Each structure stands twice: as C-alpha cells, then as structure tokens.
Amino acid sequence: MTGRAGDAWDIAEIIGRFRNASNATLLAVTEAGRMVVYKPERGQRPLHDFDCRTLPAREVLTFELAGAAGLDCVPETVPVSGPFGPGSAQVFVEVDDEFDPATLINEADPSLWPIVTLDLVINSADRKAGHVIADDAGRIWCIDHGLALHAEPKLRTVMWAFSGQALPAAMVECVRKLERALDDRLHARTEELLGGEEADALAARVDALLDDPTHPYPPTDRHPLPWPLW
After folding, report:
1. Residues facing 214 on adjacent strands
2. Which residues contact 101 (CB under 8 A, 6 or more apart)?
3. Peptide bond preceding 216 in cis form (omega within 30 of 0)
4. Angle formed by the axes of helices 113-122 and 55-69, nearest 10°
C-alpha cells in the first residue's frame, strides 16, 4: 500500500487480538501513544472475489472518501508499518456496550443515512449490523470496510429497509462533494491504491447515484445480505 501518515502512526506495540474477526485484526499502540486497530496486509485470508492484499488499502480509502464527502462516519484510518508488515490502522473507538443498532436498522432510522450513503458509494459487500457502533458520547460510526470498492456490483448489507427511499438533500450534497473530490484528486488516489478499474467504477457509482438519488432494492441475481448478519 502506498501513502504514509507519518512515523507517529507506526505501530509500537501489539496489545491484543480481536478473536471474532475473520482476518488478523489487532489492538495496538502507535509510536505517538494512540490506540488503534491494526490490520496487516499479510494477515488477510484469501478470498475468491477480492485480492486479500488490498483489504487494508480499501479500509484507508473508505475513510478518505467519507471525509471528502463530508459524511464523517468512519474513524480515522491510515496506512502504517508495523511488526507484521504494512497495513492499515484505525483509531480505536471506545464503544457504548448498551448501543443496539438493530432497531435503527430495521426502522430505517434517518440517523443512519450517512452510513447508508457511504455504502452505496463504496459498494460495500459486508455491511453487518455489528459494524455499526456508537461511542460513549452517542456518536454513530461504521467500521470494517475491507470488503468494499469492488469494480463489480457487490452490495451486501443489512440496510435494505431503506430500499426505494430518496436520499435526503444533505446526502445528495455529500455525493456531489465527492464527485468534485474525485475530479480533483481522489480518482487518481483510488487508482493508486486499487487500480483503474476500481477507480472508474467508483466514479460511475457516484454519477449513477446523482442521476437517481434513491436507495436501490435488493438484487435478485445474487445474495443481498452479508453473513453472518451481525
């Protein structure tokens, strides 16, 4: 993965491992003393539809795209070096253990629109309910974006309650901001991290969403849900 956030982000110490994660997902401390979730490239399991070596880059790029769009629902995520090689590091969020996203998801709560809009843009293939979290202040975040930004349609999500709903005007403006950022630099950034096919597909999804700012219905030619759902 190319691009660096600076030595202060590099991993100084591994604290532990998230054992319920399917790939190597490590709790770590950076050189600057920041608690992060470290995902090394070489700890990703082979997949039939994603190059596993690119999963950390997809995490980083998702954060950059969310920030450029003004969605701000992804914890800061950067490329790093660490004891298990290059990968991504995401700021660790102290979660509110009492937060249950299920009701918000099932009722298509408007507070989830930033996450839902981001998923449409990045073509999220793994939006589980457990990837929607809240911090101690009640702010809602989304995590785990390794399976995203594929060039082929891959949307697999628990958010289908939003099907057929028009994106709120604020979300459409976020997509417009992203369109401008892609024209400026982010198309080249996507090509740098993932390749031209993924970059062009991202731009095409943004254009399509602006042409018809409506959440799609579940596909009938492939499985629409992630597994497990949580």
Report:
1. 166
2. 112, 129, 130, 132, 133, 134, 140
3. no
4. 130
Distance of alpha carbon 185 from the chain centroid = 19
Residue 182 pLDDT greater than 70, yes or no: yes
The Cα 1–Cα 58 span in angstroms is 10
- Phi, psi at 217, each rounded to 5°: -90, 160
Nearest 10 degrees: CA dihedral of 142, 147, 149, 155?
-80
Q: Position of tokens 């843009």?
A: 121
For residue range 1-53, list pLDDT tens digits in order.
555 455 678 899 999 988 777 778 999 999 899 999 999 988 777 778 898 88
Sheet holding 26-30, edge to edge: 11-17, 26-30, 35-40, 87-91, 77-80
Q: Are 153 and 211 in contact (CB under 8 A)?
A: no
Beta strands in 73-143 (DSSP E): 77-80, 87-91, 132-134, 140-142
| Interatomic CA distance for residues 28 and 36, integer angstroms | 5
172 versus 43: which is more confidently predicted?
172
pLDDT of residue 45: 74
Percent of the chain topping pLDDT 90: 81
